[in-house]
Amino acid sequence: MFSLRALLAPARPLRSFALLDNHGLCRALRQSAKAPLGAGWVEVAQINPSWLQHPLPASARVAQVTAHAQTGKALAA
């Protein structure tokens, strides 16, 4: 039975990831709401099975958003 919370909560969109080995070859593809644990996973714009056992095209990767720490600067009064 579905809960009311499941009906009202927005579904998280699936993101696409590729697992790269030490040589840069794609070894696995995955879609999930959160990034997979472990080293080698990179976010990609879409999943393409033809990438398996091959290097990813340069256009496949999603640009990583880096959060910069806010520095507390004193304001002049």
Per DSSP, what share of the residues sits in E-state strands of 2 or more residues?
A: 15-25%
Q: Number of DSSP strands? A: 3
Profile the largest sheet: 3 strands, antiparallel
Bulk shape: flat
Please identify the structural class as seen in this structure. mainly beta
Residue windows where pLDDT falls under 50 for at least 5 positions: none
Radius of gyration: 19 Å
* Helix run count: 1
> Which sequence of SSEs, written as H and E, runs from N to C?
HEEE
Round the mean pLDDT to the nearest integer and report it: 83
Estimated helix fraction: under 10%
Strand order of the largest sheet: 2-1-3
* Through-space gap between termini: 60 Å
Secondary structure elements and pairings:
Elements: H1 4-8, E1 15-20, E2 26-32, E3 41-44
Antiparallel strand pairs: 1-2, 1-3
Give a short overview:
The protein is mainly β. It contains 1 helix and 3 strands.
Describe the protein's architecture and organization.
- The protein has 77 residues and is mainly beta.
- It has a domain at 9-51.
- The chain is built from one helix and three strands; from the N terminus they run αβββ.
- A three-stranded antiparallel sheet has the order 2-1-3, with no helix packed on it.
- The protein is flat.
- 5% of the residues are buried.
Question: Which characteristics define this entry?
Answer:
about 80 residues; mainly beta; 3-stranded antiparallel beta sheet; 1 helix; 3 strands; flat
